[in-house]
Design brief:
globular; Alpha-Beta Plaits; 39% helix; 4 domains; 4-stranded antiparallel β-sheet; MutS, DNA mismatch repair protein, domain I; single chain; binds magnesium ion; DNA polymerase, domain 1; binds thymidine-5'-triphosphate; 356 residues
Length: 356
């Protein structure tokens, strides 16, 4: 049986802006284009949602619902970098990750042995790491397949965790409205309701032939989801560019020997990760990452380096010299060759003939 976690950040773009300007936290706040420029909102915080303000709403309309709404412009490169850091955190827990958007991903933790192999505890550890290191909250759903995990991550939003155990899947899915099934938009939901199917429990009783006539190949999916079933696997198409480990220390390390003393332990962890991923032949160079206690971050990397203690010591000494401050976080990593993964290497040889 699979163990799947679905993670979705809470009011993602707005959360990042609130982190950077905490005076916005308790005020209705949104991120989007200006009303004058006929802009729309990308998202808004939860206080703004109480006024009925929503994603994709024209900003002018949002002001009518909530005149005191504060709207900040979209800073997509900032959100992209937070998204990349979030993925780095996920990668500490599992290699089987399918990002769905900037703020959302499926993680398969079926074969993860840390946290006693408990998917719920892994999900909590991820939520804590994201909150502590990135200053935003994420909600998580944990279950035996993608469908249930995704529905569950919305259950206790914001900043919530919902676990649907194998025993609970049947009852949990039966009670869902048909609209909760991915792919069922307002039009399909309306059709299903008019056929008498409001919940997944109703849908389970549907005549498969009638359903097929109405919805074609989607009928099969509808019936599976109605029973809480979903056999899709987590699809890791991302091409890995690096492998790394990092550690945030509960009290800051002195700038110097205390940091060097941490290297052997970190390297051991990194080596274990490299061995697990079977990507060692693609290592191009080593790098270290340092976060000082003023939260500034620096990385040091150099061609010709490898994942050896000696190379990391030299890189670390260079990095520590950049600021005379105590250290909050240390990371070791290797950059990988931009080789394509194996499955891309198996392209048919007559590919040029197919695309003259
Ligand atoms: P969502 O996860 O859909 O929304 P959210 O994270 O803002 O709020 P929630 O707490 O309900 O999950 O989308 C993630 C980000 O994608 C969102 O912060 C902004 C962006 N986005 C748009 O730019 N346009 C849109 O229409 C939507 C829905 C989201
Ligand atoms: Mg979100």
């Amino acid at each position: 049986m699979q163990k799947i976690i679905h993670i979705d950040a809470d009011c993602f773009f707005a959360a990042i802006e609130m982190r950077d300007d905490p005076s916005l936290i308790h005020k209705p706040f949104a991120v989007g284009g200006s009303a004058e420029g006929r802009g729309v909102l990308t998202t808004c915080n939860y206080p703004a949602r109480e006024y009925g303000v929503r994603s994709a709403m024209p900003t002018a309309q949002a002001y009518r619902l909530c005149p005191e709404l504060i709207v900040a412009p979209v800073n997509i490169s900032k959100y992209r970098s937070v998204s990349a850091l979030m993925l780095d955190i996920f990668e500490r827990f599992t290699d089987v990750i399918e990002p769905l958007s900037l703020d959302e991903a499926f993680l398969d933790v079926t074969h993860v042995s840390s946290h006693d192999g408990s998917a719920s505890r892994i999900a909590e550890a991820i939520r804590t790491a994201v909150r502590d290191e990135l200053g935003i909250t994420v909600s998580a759903g944990v279950s035996i397949n993608k469908f249930i995990a995704k529905v569950a991550s919305d259950w206790h939003k914001p900043n919530g965790l919902k676990v649907v155990t194998p025993d609970e899947v049947d009852g949990f899915s039966a009670a869902l409205k048909v609209r909760a099934i991915p792919g069922v938009g307002p039009v399909t939901a309306d059709k299903l309701t008019r056929m008498g199917f409001n919940t997944c429990r109703d849908l389970r009783e549907a005549d498969p032939i009638r359903l097929k006539r109405r919805f074609g190949s989607f009928a099969q999916t509808l019936l599976e989801r109605a029973h809480g079933r979903d056999n899709r696997s987590v699809n890791t198409q991302r091409i890995r560019k690096s492998i790394s480990v990092e550690h945030t220390y509960s009290s800051d390390l002195g700038n110097g020997k205390p940091c060097l003393d941490k290297l052997p332990g970190l390297l051991e962890e990194l080596t274990a990760r490299i061995e697990k991923t079977d990507l060692s032949r693609r290592i191009r160079k080593a790098y270290i990452k340092i976060k000082f206690n003023d939260f500034s971050t620096t990385t040091v990397e150099r061609v010709g380096t490898a994942a050896t203690l000696n190379d990391y010591q030299e890189l670390l000494v260079d990095g520590l010299a950049r600021r005379d401050l105590p250290i909050r976080l240390l990371g070791l990593g290797v950059r990988l060759d931009p080789d394509l993964p194996e499955k891309f290497e198996q392209l048919p040889l007559d590919i040029e003939e197919q695309h003259p």
